[in-house]
Amino acid sequence: MGVSSPVGIRWFRHAGGMTPIRLDEPVGRYLSFDEREEIAILTSQDVGVREIARRLGRDPGTISRELRRNAATRGGKPVYRAGVAQWKAQQAAKRPKVAKMVKNPRLRDYVQDRLAGQLQHEDGTVVSGPRTPVWKGLNKPHRGDRKWSIAWSPEQISNRLPLDFPDDESMRISHEAIYQSLYIEGRGALKRELVAALRTRRALRKPRARSKSSPHGHVTEEVVISQRPAEAADRAVPGQWEGDLIIGTGRSAIGTVVERSSRSILLVHLPRLKGWRDTPRVKNGPALSGYGAEAMNLALQASMTRLPLQLRQTLTWDRGTELAAHADFTHATGTKVFFANPHSPWQRPTNENTNGVLRQYFPKGTDLSRWEAHDLESVALALNNRPRKVLGFRTPAEVFAEQLESIQNGSVATTD
């Protein structure tokens, strides 16, 4: 490139992690990167301007201006390098215009509120969440707390705008424009620290990795996923759920249950039981951490039985032993439990995706027992009111309300 490493790194960071130099072929009178490489080679061989122009089929004036305007001057003496010349040409060709969110404060406020707005209880009081350090331009903390916020993705914001403002064309923006406003310096009206509200919280853009689950084997043939009714695999039929745990430090956990059709979320509060860390551990005794089989069964029953029976037909779980008492759970609730195959997280895709989203609020390496049931309800409320692309950017709460109304109109809903 002909520039020092610090300069290259600075260019890369200013571009938000995306390459700042385009090597695609221009059209018409503009020189291409290949032509600039040829100019650099011929110039280093002391070939004259007219000879270079003849070989490239260009006007000598074009070559002369190129050498004068786009040569590198860092060493004091002009030296022509193709990479530097390409970057200089692109900078000179820019036609900057005022970003949409700069001209439209109402649009900017809408985007900022959906990105970094504060969580609230149903009565409107603000949920403070964990205390977090000031963002310093780094990636998300390793196994540390993150600030709680509304945290819609740019795509969710972009596609929700036409639903919230169907007659106002000024309230439109692409998700890429939001990303560029966050990541590229001088592009838009959003502060760079708002990237901390994104799910990944990456300081620079890069591909995303997927996590894998660690299943256990304690399942009988009657409850493997292959025995699950065919309608449970069809997302058109409501009442089919997927579940798992997210684990924190000190053997703390939160139960996560997601409805496959509406993507509605239930968070199961799993407080530690009396005597945890105060009494000696008993071999084969009850688990006091809060997600032993007995405690998990009772907590999951309390959460699921609040729903009409028609909206809790099946539950597909990971192979964790926390649901070893699944027969008792089915007897008490009427909800049939099935278990995914080993090493097959894709058989519970909705729950796996949801757990990734929840890590924005409950990062790995943090103590999840700090949060009370009403805190979990606030997070679930925020996520259930977040628009989803798969739902046509309606919210899970809206779709679930439609399902509930349909059932109530068809028959009397029961919860026992």
From TrEMBL:
Q: Where is the Integrase catalytic domain?
A: 225-404
Ordered alphabetically, the record's keywords are:
DNA recombination
Electron transport is among the record's keywords:
no
PROSITE patterns attached to this UniProt entry: INTEGRASE (PS50994)
Asked if the record carries the keyword Signal, the reply is no
Q: Which NCBIfam families match?
A: transpos_IS30
Q: What is this protein called?
A: IS30-like element ISMsm8 family transposase
